[in-house]
# Entry
Amino acid sequence: MRRLAVLTSGGDAPGMNAAVRAVVRTAIFRGLEVMGVRRGYSGLLNGELEPMTLGSVADIIQRGGTVLHTARCEAFKQPAGQRQGLAVLRQHGVDGLVVIGGDGSFRGAWALAQLGMPTIGVPGTIDNDIPCCDVTIGFDTAVNTAIQAIDKIRDTATSHERTYVVEVMGRNAGDIALHVALAGGAESVLIPEAPFSLDDVIRKLQRGVARGKKHSIILVAEGAGSGIEIGRYLTQHTGFEVRVTVLGHIQRGGPPTAQDRILASQLGAFAVELLRQGASAKMAATQGGTLVAVDLETVFTTPRQPDMRLYELANMLSI
Ligand code: ADP
Ligand code: F6P
# Structure
């Protein structure tokens, strides 16, 4: 193995830069050359590769987003696109690839591995929706960003004695909503992994009002429904003054937390070591804090859900 490449793909996540830095610096430390692929699989198909140096990853560990840029690329879902991607990598003399992204990006990584390009996935997504790992890069930052917003919303909710519905991201996973609800002291949390009834939410709101509670925050994971529609339903059925905030893409930006920078540094470096050992079609991850290599096929076939004990706890504490 002489030359590696690294790309970021799918939705960006704070900490991706720290992972890119770790890949590049570990590769160089080990005497390898390393190329950066711009714009994920889309850039790969366009041949957007350039050599990376120690200097090209200087001053990025603290920055959100991804200096390599990211993209979604429909063409890469097709075998023809994947073969073209392999050809581009071969033309550039690449003999190992690190893909930093989420589940979709890992499917592309797996396809390249099947075609004979040693490829390792590093889990980077704010959604935390990847099985077989403790946590994904970007989740901790997104949760902390959302908590800051919740604390601010609580100030104004208290002043005006209002009910707030706050919708957070997560695609089909309720992890962000659940962690933010627990850490932010939300009165209710709605996640796709647990059945809920809006009438139960209303009964809980009314119980709170009956004992003198003046404001409430209801956390909604985007996968559980539209915050705007839920807000409308609550307004119609309670007569309370309800406001809705959809936090949106601010959850994807900002400087990564220390936890995300450290995780990204560990996983980026480990991905390079795995390639050097001849591994392919694996995810570099931590389990119980220990670095592990998980078969991508296992990742694809393992069901996952958030820690439902936290869901029980959030409900108990917001009684
Ligand atoms: P994430 O990696 O965050 O889950 P996406 O699901 O949007 O994000 O996937 C990112 C990119 O990965 C897609 O735009 C596509 O290029 C590639 N990809 C997704 N699914 C597949 C697949 N089944 N086969 C090959 N490549 C895929
Ligand atoms: O996967 C990260 C994520 O931010 C999800 O939480 C969200 O559903 C989606 O990406 C939004 O994607 P886009 O950047 O296309 O708006």
